[in-house]
């Protein structure tokens, strides 16, 4: 069904439903309750998890607040532990959330018709599902969804910052409903940070296979879901095939939220044990160290990268990753004024690494007071920078080009200064 056909169907159904005070009688499974005209709800007991009483400063605090959903900042929410160091959120204050919609465009013609929210009650994941069976019930449907989201202080979603929350906000505005003020954590952001460089896609399905080590059986493709609901709306009586398809849609939405909760717990555990995350979960060490640094855990980030650097042969990491680990670790060492570690790192950097050559030039000039060796490394760095500019791999308007030209200019200045220093030393009798 193309967009034109879908819009025609929507208009047709809206026209037909004007003046209808009651929904068409349809047989729903016994666990569904009709609470409002056109709106059904059910509660489902999900799987049992090992859940900590609190989510600490990992996935919660590292997430950026969504301007589309909340104006609060993550630093002002939650509690501080007994040492005053760890930001924590009670596990039952996080609501996991996902919508099913009539399309992926997110425009004014896109409706939400199915919502699943979930929260932990002890070790149990309790899910609440709300279903809109026809257009006239949209306002009541949205009101019920908002009331469920209001049960917690934090909302967790997968790609919700880009799609679910903006769509929900738009539909609420059109229906005169006020959105609640809640903090929003989009788990997709950490998935992209940690695994985006090694996976072709960071879709929820990819995360299930690669991170959660699970696959779905008897699932319906997400692209088929809008058509199933639109066919449901226009049918007065449901055949067995339509009933089976709607069951698959409901179950698909549930599985999305269960996978979201599993991913949330998994990523939160990575922040608790970063070294295991790098070794066992193939997490990008630099991204994880960067997130840990932003949480104020500088020493932990430094220890993580140092272990990776000194045991890189065991981990079979690429030369590019090792270079970046060295660079990041050197910056941390310099910040901590750890000259021994900084020197060890810089001197171990290979001669084809531009950052390493520049760092060696600085080290020999300012720390070791060896201008001749510093000049050798400065000239080597200058050659590398010029070669990258002249190779044609960098476009003239790119920021990378501007950065390289800036490096070349700085090296020209450094080389000239070193040559003057060396000449002056020779001139002294």
Describe the structure.
This protein is of the alpha+beta class and 429 residues long. The protein folds into three domains: 3-17 and 25-272, Ribonuclease H-like superfamily/Ribonuclease H (Nucleotidyltransferase, domain 5), CATH 3.30.420; 282-348, no CATH class; 357-429. Helix content is 53%, strand content 13%. It has 17 helices and ten strands. The chain has helices at 3-17, 59-62, 138-149, 160-174, 187-195, 204-210, 225-234, 240-272, 274-280, 285-294, 298-310, 312-315, 319-335, 339-348, 354-367, 371-390, 399-427, and strands at 33-36, 39-48, 54-55, 79-80, 87-90, 94-101, 112-121, 124-132, 154-157, 183-186. The strands form two sheets. It has a seven-stranded mixed β-sheet. A hairpin with a 2-residue loop joins strand 7 and strand 8. Helix 8 (240-272) crosses helix 9 (274-280), helix 10 runs antiparallel to helix 11 (298-310) and helix 13 packs antiparallel against helix 14.
The CATH class label of the largest domain is Alpha Beta
Based on Cα principal axes, name the global outline: elongated
Average per-residue pLDDT, rounded, comes to 85
* Uncertain parts: 62-86
CATH topology of the largest domain: Nucleotidyltransferase, domain 5
The helix/strand series, from N terminus to C terminus, equals HEEEHEEEEEHEHEHHHHHHHHHHHHH
CATH architecture of the largest domain: 2-Layer Sandwich
- Assess the beta-strand content as a share of residues: 5-15%
Structural class comes to alpha+beta
How many structurally independent domains?
3
Q: Can you count the beta strands?
A: 10
């Amino acid at each position: 069904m193309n967009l034109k056909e879908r819009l025609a169907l929507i208009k047709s159904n809206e026209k037909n439903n004007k003046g209808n005070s009651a929904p068409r009688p349809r047989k729903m499974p016994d666990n569904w309750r009709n609470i409002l005209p056109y709106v059904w709800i059910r509660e489902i007991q999900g799987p049992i998890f090992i859940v900590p009483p609190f989510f600490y400063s990992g996935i919660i605090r590292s997430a950026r607040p969504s301007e589309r959903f909340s104006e609060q900042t993550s630093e002002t929410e939650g509690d501080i532990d007994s040492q005053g160091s760890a930001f924590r959120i009670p596990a039952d204050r996080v609501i996991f959330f996902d919508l099913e919609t009539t399309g992926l465009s997110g425009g004014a013609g896109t409706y939400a018709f199915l919502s699943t929210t979930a929260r932990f009650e002890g070790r149990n994941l309790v899910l609440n599902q709300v279903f809109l069976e026809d257009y006239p019930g949209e306002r009541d449907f949205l009101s019920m969804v908002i009331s469920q989201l209001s049960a917690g202080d934090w909302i967790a979603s997968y790609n919700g910052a880009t799609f679910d929350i903006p769509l929900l906000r738009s539909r609420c505005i059109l229906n005169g409903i006020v959105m609640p003020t809640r903090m929003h954590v989009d788990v997709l952001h950490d998935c992209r940070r940690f695994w985006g460089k090694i996976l072709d896609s960071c879709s929820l399905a990819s995360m299930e296979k690669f991170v959660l080590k699970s696959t779905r059986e008897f699932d319906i493709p997400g692209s088929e879901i809008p058509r199933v609901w639109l066919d449901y709306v226009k049918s007065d009586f449901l055949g067995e095939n339509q009933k089976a398809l709607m069951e698959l849609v409901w179950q698909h939405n549930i599985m999305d939220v269960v996978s979201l909760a599993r991913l949330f717990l998994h990523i939160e555990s990575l922040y608790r044990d970063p070294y295991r995350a790098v070794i066992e979960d193939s997490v990008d060490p630099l991204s994880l160290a960067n997130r840990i640094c932003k949480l104020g855990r500088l020493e932990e980030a430094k220890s993580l990268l140092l272990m990776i650097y000194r045991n890189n042969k065991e981990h079979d990491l690429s030369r590019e990753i090792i270079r970046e680990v060295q660079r990041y670790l050197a910056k941390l060492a310099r910040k901590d004024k750890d000259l021994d570690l900084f020197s060890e790192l810089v001197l171990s950097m290979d001669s084809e690494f531009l950052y390493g050559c520049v760092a060696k030039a600085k080290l020999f000039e300012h720390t070791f007071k060896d201008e001749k060796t510093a000049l050798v490394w400065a000239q080597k760095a200058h050659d590398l920078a010029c070669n990258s500019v002249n190779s044609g791999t960098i476009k003239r308007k790119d920021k990378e080009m501007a950065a390289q030209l800036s490096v070349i200019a700085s090296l020209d200045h450094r080389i000239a200064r070193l040559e003057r220093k060396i000449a002056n030393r020779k001139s002294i009798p």
